[in-house]
Amino acid sequence: MDFKTADLYDAHGEALRVCEPIFRDFGGQSRFAGPVVPVKCFEDNSVVKSTLAEPGEGRVLVVDAGGSLRCAMLGDLIAASAVEQGWAGVILFGCVRDSVEIGQMPLGVKALASIPRKSQRRGEGQRDIPVTFAGVRFAPGDWVYCDEDGILVSDRALDP
Ligand SMILES: O=C([O-])CC(=O)C(=O)O
């Protein structure tokens, strides 16, 4: 995928939502884009696991994990499932673990930090609802564009 977020910003300006720069790149793919699938969950990664086990079709899972720095919502097994299912990436307002392995996968992963502790799995969480973090709103069907410079959100796919 051939784009640069800085060039997209220059072309489209404030028609795009610009995420606050609070994320680090953990995936082996720093440049990724696709339609948004938003989920909301807190210290329970059930909905992350179940969603990334479905066909991804080039979409990006956007996880509002409340910014928790207490546990990891994504590890190497769930990330490997995302790769196998064809997800373009994951934007996680929360933490990962198994960061070395995730860094070798052809998957975009932006998250706050890594931590060894795993999350709960009690089946709690919501899916396909708008979420807001890092100063922007992500709704189902929005498009995200990510690279080393940051994250842009658009309410439609942009012309290449
Ligand atoms: O299973 C989990 O909760 C997270 C994890 O470590 C993995 O995906 O490998």
From TrEMBL:
Its cofactor is Mg(2+); a divalent metal cation. Substrate binds at residues 75-78, 97. GO terms for biological process: regulation of RNA metabolic process. It comes from the Bacteria. Its EC number is 4.1.1.112, 4.1.3.17. Keywords: Lyase, Magnesium, Metal-binding. GO terms for molecular function: 4-hydroxy-4-methyl-2-oxoglutarate aldolase activity; metal ion binding; oxaloacetate decarboxylase activity; ribonuclease inhibitor activity. It catalyses: oxaloacetate + H(+) = pyruvate + CO2; 4-hydroxy-4-methyl-2-oxoglutarate = 2 pyruvate. Mg(2+) binds at residue 98. Belongs to the class II aldolase/RraA-like family. Catalyzes the aldol cleavage of 4-hydroxy-4-methyl-2-oxoglutarate (HMG) into 2 molecules of pyruvate. Also contains a secondary oxaloacetate (OAA) decarboxylase activity due to the common pyruvate enolate transition state formed following C-C bond cleavage in the retro-aldol and decarboxylation reactions. Homotrimer. This is 4-hydroxy-4-methyl-2-oxoglutarate aldolase. It comes from Thiorhodococcus mannitoliphagus.
